[in-house]
Amino acid sequence: MRECSEKSLRIDKWLKIACIFKTRNQAAEACTQGKVKINNQSVKASRLAKIGDTIEIKFKWRTRTFDVLNIVTKSIKAADARLLYHEHEPTCEEKAADELRSLFYQSSRLNRPKYKGRPTKKERRELDKFRNKKLF
Question: Most-buried pick from 31, 100, 101, 133 (CB within 10 A)?
């Protein structure tokens, strides 16, 4: 791994190199939306990340916390990228909240209509039969 002499790097670049986001643009977008915090302060994409900083990233329903262990200026393998940070384990309350959220999302999927858009040929025939039935 190549190391930077000043041991600091833009946060959007670091998040991309550490394989937390797939692209630098996604990392920068998360920063502008206020989803990235360094040492409990919301940051812009241009903020410099240093060794020892604590980064907190809020994803859809989960918050991940990292400690920066190393700074690298070039893209590296994903296996080596995992050595750049240490991820904190979620607490018992966060795990319970994740389980509740997953149950909520699973139940909302069950209530969705089966088909959307135009009906299939079979569905159209069934609708025509239903409409042509005389109720009295």
Answer: 31
